[in-house]
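Hi C.,

You asked whether I'd gotten around to modeling the 190-residue construct. I have! Everything is below, sequence then structure, no commentary in between.
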Amino acid sequence: MKRSYILGIILVCFIAVTGSVRAQETFTGNVISYGSRAYTGVRTANFTLKINRSTPDEKANGFLEMLQSNGQDALLNAVRNEDLGSFSLNQGLSRTINAVRETNEYGKRHIYVVFERWEQFNEIRSGRRSLDYPFGYIELVIDTRTGKGTGQYFAAAKIRWKKVEAQVEIEDYATFPAKLVNVESNRGRP
């Protein structure tokens, strides 16, 4: 009797621990960036997006309140310490993902990712307008049947609250957001 009780406790603890931890999901694919200003060509790259977990509802609501009351600089300071995964281009140094939200609509997963973007030395040195766009932003649309999809990537984004429409607006610094194509989840089909 004592032996089955101990095995039962071990089994319950194992189920509780494994049920609460979500396995890491990795998305890979290609980025197609359209040039603007001085460089008008098209650039391509590979990307890897690793998501460890999503931002909980309570924390997401807190970030939204922070954005509404204090703006994007306060939001950046609030999310800066969050580590929900990583994003890298061409197997280079990755950026830590700071916020992840997901919705499911009509058999499609919509994944929204926010992180502190890469900044170039010359834009910091000269104080360029691009510094007003401190976030990187990714939207993915993944088919739940195949695990494949598409998306878009804002390399430099501004996030603000629009009071009139009562919604979050994400503005891209570039003329057009980069396209994410051939996107695949390492989980494949569910």
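If it helps when you're writing up: The chain has one domain: 23-185.

Thanks,
B.
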